[in-house]
Each structure stands twice: as structure tokens, then as C-alpha cells.
Give the backbone structure.
Amino acid sequence: MVSELPTKNRETGVRPPGSRRPRAAELALAPIAVLLILAVLARPQLVSLLDRPAVANWATVFVAVAVQALPFLVLGVTVSAVIAAFVSPATLSRVFPDRPVYAVPVAALAGAALPGCECGSVPIARRLMSRGVTPAAALTFLLSAPAINPVVLVATAVAFPGQPEMVAARFVASLIAAVAVGLAWTMIGRGDLLALATRPAAPSRHRPIQVFMQTAQHDFLSAGGYLVIGAGAAASLQTAVPRSVVDMFAQSPIFSVLALAVLAVVLALCSEADAFVAAGLKQFSLTARLAFLVVGPMVDVKLIALQAGTFGRAFTLRFAPLTFVCALGSASLVGWWML
Amino acid sequence: MTPLVGGTTLLLVGAMLIRLTVTDAYQRYVRVGMGSWLLVAGVLLAILGSVAVVTALRGTKDEDHPGEEDHHSGEEEHDHEHGDRVGWLLLVPVLALLLVVPPALGSFGVDRSQVRAAPGTSAVFDPLPAAAEPRPMTLLEFDQRAFDRSGQSMQGIKLVLTGFVAKSADGNGFRIARYQIACCAADAVAAVARVSGATGAAPTRDAWFIVTGTFKGIGADGVPEFVASTVQQTPAPVDPYE
């Protein structure tokens, strides 16, 4: 008894020395075990909850958003971990010029090379920053990658058969919006907001493969947690907001653009799927649907949660509105010009 | 999260994805084509988690907490970044799928996600050849043909439709619906039809039916009408979407 007391104190206070760790770690598994037991005990209640159609609808959409995003998150986390473990800052600085004026357009076009949706690009952008890429360029990459990669453009072409101008307009408007946000950030952005993400990683004494594993684990756990929050928000909004509210806005030309931009934020669709939904919103003008396609991959409730977790709340509070305005403006202009 | 807890969480998420794929239950939530990607992601996460658990249990003599090393220096100034504590939330979908497995989308969302095909904007179809056997058709194609020149292309052709009951009493019969998904259940849109004719007693909502009959114009509310000669209840298909 007596000999155990100091050990306990140390475990609750300062991190215990290496020799004690396994035991502390095993204790830490207790909450998972308790959670599992509680959940099994509560199972009848959970099952009867699902008899309510609204709850079942919420649960299905929640699981669907989380599950379909997980492979893309795994891809993004893998790329991020590869950058952390195997790509030196020197290599990155050759790809991305130091001066933001050049780096931003390069980053916008580099986004075309990442075939994924928006969940994957958040950890990558953060990793780029911590490896010395200028923040404005990393943010531009964050915005352009999910919007203009080949998979998304092909999906858009399939969803709008016989309307190639829709694909072109999406590409141009997304590129303009991403570059505009990047340049705006170089002028009005505050470095301290991104201090967390830009702080260079401490030089590691581990072998690259260990760095890879640790980065992947950590990135997945934190991004995955915020993804769950975002999926919950999207499911709640989809279940609670009635269609009639959406239809009401469809009538006015100006409100319809704004309404679909807001709808894109609320629905939080995967950028590889949003074109199919936009194609179905036939009561809205093409420009309004373009706004839906440009805003969605850049700002939505799931992304806001992910970004707040990755870059910090103070940053996201400024970045999300800035992006929304740029995306909306770019979509309106390009829609007026091309559609 | 300590390495052991984090690793266990990764292992559980990976196991959930693998289980979803091998049981085909994933088809309730995402497009069928996503299955192999889910499996790959599940296997990768399971490997990553196993390595973390094994490393942690071996109690390596590293002073560092693996996975947290690039956060130590910032923890004092940025208290919103508690590393990956938010990772606990990943256990929510894991538990939900382990214990209850939410159903496929049902009649609840049909009204809000219904296809609103405006006449003239949908695809143009060639007329179907007359055949002795009734022709199976997706509800989506049925709706698209209905809105293409008032359904000329399938006038008088015997069709077989499969869907779930969205409204048990609708006009002289009931309404069936089926969702199409592009990526996951969050982007589902529903195609609907009103079934009249040999419908019998009003069916229960969300029950699945195979109906055989012919197209008969579009109702005043924009729902295509279907006159059934036979109506047969069926178990829900493994892939509930079109």
C-alpha cells in the first residue's frame, strides 16, 4: 500500500518516467472499456430510438457522411505523413516559391494533382505550413485541391451532360476564389492566428518510418474527431431544415445564388458528389448552382469543424467568412460571364 | 490520447470499416463502388492501430510520447490544441455501427429530397420496344421517361418497378419511392411514383414492393402515375439505392 502511493500521485500529475508508462497506458484503456459496457447496456434504448423516423434519418446521414469521408481522410493523412517523414523543407521550397505572389498561383494549380475531396486536403495544408511553405500558398492549396482535381471535374461533366461550360466555369471560378483568398491572406492575414500550424516541427530523433506512423496516427485521430462533429452538424441540419424553406428562396435571382451558397455550407456534401445534387436542383439558375459547387468544397459545416480543430478557432472565425465571400463573388462573376 | 488509447481507437475504426464492407452493410450509407476504398482504408487504419498498440504495450524506452511530439512546445500558448483528444469522438460512429446499425434511408426524407424534374429539361429517350415480358425499370428512369414528352417513350409498355412505400394512402393507391445516391446517403434524391389499380389494403410505410403495370400520365401534383396489375411485397434489397 504504502509503496504504491507515490506512484499514483505521479501518474495523476507529471508524466511518469518511461518504466511506469505501460501501466499508466493500460489504465487509460479503462474509459474505452467502460464506454463499451455502457453502450452495450444501453442497446435496447438505442434500438427503440431508431424506431422514430427522424432519429433513424439523422443516424443514417451521420454515419454516411462519416463513413464516406474516412477513405479520403486516410488518403490525406497518408500524404501528410509522407510529407512529414520523407519530404525535406528544401524540396518543398523548390516547388513552392517563397514570395506569396508567385507561390499562391502555383499552389492553386498544384491542387489539381490531388484526387480527393475536402477532408483530405486539411491535414496536407497544415503539414505544408509546418514544413515551411508560406501560409497563403498552403491555404490556397487547401481551397483549390478539392474543387479542381480531375475526379471532381469528371463528376461534374457526368452530372451536367451536354453542358461542358459548367465544368469550365467550376474550374475557373474555383481557381479565382482560391487565389483571391490566398492573396487576401497575404495582405490582411495575421501570422499569429496560424502560429500553431506554422511552428516548425521539432527535429525528430526517430527514423522516418516512425515519424510517418506517429504523424499518421496523430493526424487521423484529430481530423477524424472533428469530422465526427461535422458529420453530426450536417445530419442535424439535413434532418431539421424543411425543403419548403429552400424552395422559397429559389424564386428570386439574387436570393437564389445566396440560398444555394448557404445550402452548400449547410449540407456539407463531398466535393465528388455535390455536382449530382446541383444537377438535381433544377428550379435554380445555373449561376446559383455554380455558387453551390464553388462554395461547397471551400466552406461547409464539416470543414469549419475540421479547420477549427486543425488551425485554431480564431483563425477559422476569420478564414471561413473570407472564403465564403470570395467564393460567392467569384461564382457570381464567372456565372454572369460564362453561363 | 495516450498511444495505447489512440492505437485502440484506430484499430476499432479500421475494424468497423472492414466489418461494414464484408457484411455489405456499407451499401446502406455509401455508393456500392466505394466498397473497395472503404476496405483499403479499414485495413490501413487497422495496421496503423495495431502497430501503435504493440509499440505501446512493449513499453519502449523512448522518452517521447509517440504521436504527440510536435505539439509539446506549443501546448502552453495554445490551450485549444490538446493534441488529439477530440479523437475520442471517433468512437461514436464505431459504437453506433457496432450496436444498432442505422437503417437505410426511408420515407422520412422523401418529401424533402424528391426529384423535381421540370418538363423539357430531362434526357430524351427512344421509345421502348413492345415485349411480351414485363420490363424491369428503375424508378429514376421511370420518372425521367415520364417527364420526357409526357412519357411517350413507355406508353402502353408493361413495366416492373421496385421501391418502398413513401405514403400508404395517396390518391387511389399508395406512393412508392427509391433513392439514388451519387456518393453517400447525404446526397440522396428520391424518385417517386403513385401506384393505383390492384393495390389491395393500404400498405405500411417503408415496406418494399415490386409492382407490375403501366405508366398513366403525370398527376396534378407532379407525381407520375402507375396503374398496377400486380402488387407484391418483397424484402428490402441489399443495395437499397439505385
Summary: The longest helix of chain B spans residues 35-58.
